[in-house]
Amino acid sequence: MCEEYRPHSHFVTADDQGLKHASAGIIWSRTVNEAMRPPATWSKAIDGALELYRSLWSEQDCDHNLSMWADSGERPTFVPYDSTDILVGIDAVYGHLQKRNRETGLIHLEWSKIASWSSGSANCLIARQRLITVNRSDGQKEARTLNVIVATIAAEKSMRLLSVSEAPPAALLEMSRSYQRHGISRDEL
Amino acid sequence: MSEMRDHEVFTAFLNKYIGLSHGMRFDEKRAMWDLDEPTPVLSPEEVMQPLIGWPAIERYWGETRESIESLSTEWWDLHVQRLSPDFALLLFKQRWRAIMIPASIFSDKHIASTVRVSMGVRKLSDEWRIIFSVESHVDGVVYFRALYAQSMLTD
């Protein structure tokens, strides 16, 4: 799998679309929306778990990126916003991330913490994130909000991702109207 | 507990929980949650903000009951991930099918959707209880781009 990895530049050149800042690196911020009731138990470990998630976007190095995930025996999972599948196993998970990073660059990511739970050395959190990305092929920017669930376990004295789920809030009406117009359901895409 | 046993236990758990969607038996659904959890989170696909806490969740269930004439739900493709002996993550696909009461909105046709559910469960004594449930569908931009590509092919 790693042999197939090809490094690429972080962002397309699209200065005329206001993306100059993107080439300087990822703009990174953390916000806490008080209205979302950040839990008092939000710990350093949970921050670490969220940091691991962020790194999926920014770390282009194959070995490093793979080392963030639990061993293949743990069968890590990924529910991506840009797929209809539940990806199971490190090959499927990493294959999708490779494809995403080839096609999409991260410009901006910020989050609001929603809830977290810890049990033993495992951590799980839900966060709401605002994401701005750029399509590498045409320079188009896309902004979206995602609810993200990140679960980590401890392995070899470090924290590893066991599961990541990305959930975009729906536009049900638009989806339903589109279905009625086109007669196509999301399942058929 | 072995992987096979986990799968068996949580299959029964989800059969019961999802089965309660038929007839919108939300009180019974609520009983399968950890009622002592201070931050229960429910995020159905159609809401813009996750519902945090029982007042928000119960308001949503009440509005659902008032706006939907019939609801049926099925599920499949379960993946169980044990985070610890008393904490697990259940991932599965779920398809719901509903007829809305305000027929003017949806022309009294069924609307349906398949989502992926990420559900956190905690073991209390010998019983598993839900602490969060988040539904995930494919992103709207990705969906519409695919629709556009498909319409270009058929035009």
Give an overview in words.
The complex is a heterodimer of chains A (189) and B (155). Chain A is an alpha/beta fold. Chain A has five helices and seven strands. In chain A, strands 1-4-5-6-7-2-3 form a seven-stranded mixed beta sheet, with helices on one face. In chain A, strand 2 and strand 3 form a beta hairpin. Chain A starts with 19 loop residues before the first helix and ends in a 7-residue tail after the last helix. Chain B is of the alpha+beta class and 155 residues long. Helices cover 35% and strands 39% of the residues of chain B. Chain B contains five helices and six strands, in the order ααββαββαββα. Chain B has helices at residues 3-19, 26-30, 54-67, 103-106, 140-154; strands at residues 41-43, 51-52, 68-84, 87-100, 111-124, 127-136. The longest helix of chain B has 17 residues, at 3-19. Chain B starts with a helix and ends with a helix. At the A-B interface, strand 4, strand 5, strand 6, strand 7 and helix 5 of A face strand 3, strand 4, strand 5, strand 6 and helix 5 of B.
